[in-house]
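Input.
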Amino acid sequence: MPKDMISKELNDEMNKQIVEELHSGYIYMAMAAWAEEQGLHNFAKFMQTHAEKEEFEHAMKLVRFIQEAGGHVEYGQIDGTSTTAYKDVKDVLKMAIKHEQHITARINTLKEVAKKNNDVYANQIIQWFLLEQMEEENLFEDLLDQLELMDGRIGLWNSHVKHP
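Output.
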């Protein structure tokens, strides 16, 4: 296994990001449960798929990078709880957007830590995550825009919701 291809500081921040990604999946699974209970089956499936195919895979991408760079993976504790008490679909989408903005800020922290420590091997994966975050924020913004364009007609909107 290669050594010294990741600084301790970046390794620690990436371990924190693994927890953030897993927590994202946890949040989106809670949103899926809420949507299912509201009869919004397509939106529930969308959120479940997003948790499984995006957030959990993001965590594993970080795990693989840390291991390939000779670092040490630690799974920290997921703090906090994820509510299933939402006012409406707009509330869910606005919370998802806010959460993705938080994750984008975290990825920017990784970028700054990598730059500070001259962790050049991390540049490509961090750039991938930054582009992925642009996609994630746009995904939820688009869902909210579509709901508003349909004048809040939840049933019609739900019938068109599919995960890309």
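The radius of gyration is 17 Å.
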